[in-house]
Amino acid sequence: MDVKIILSTFAAVFLAELGDKTQIAILGLSAESKKLVPVFVGSAAAMLSATLLAVLLGGVIGDYIPEKAVHVAAGLAFVVIGVLMLLGKL
Fold this sequence. Notes:
Blueprint: H1 3-17, H2 21-33, H3 36-64, H4 67-86
């Protein structure tokens, strides 16, 4: 097991997720329901499922598309989504 990859992945995801809309939604669900454990279990299961899907898809994509092309495509996707959000289209 590669501890360096585990720690760098944890740090990247943890910092990227702080204060994002998913956390704000979970905060709202917790405040509304006052049932912290079910909200935690549901949100953790959802994040685990989404992460599993991303890892599996990334593994398949990595077999067919060069890493540089994946990075460029991801960067362009973020820029497009950001512009659409600024324009109120998302």
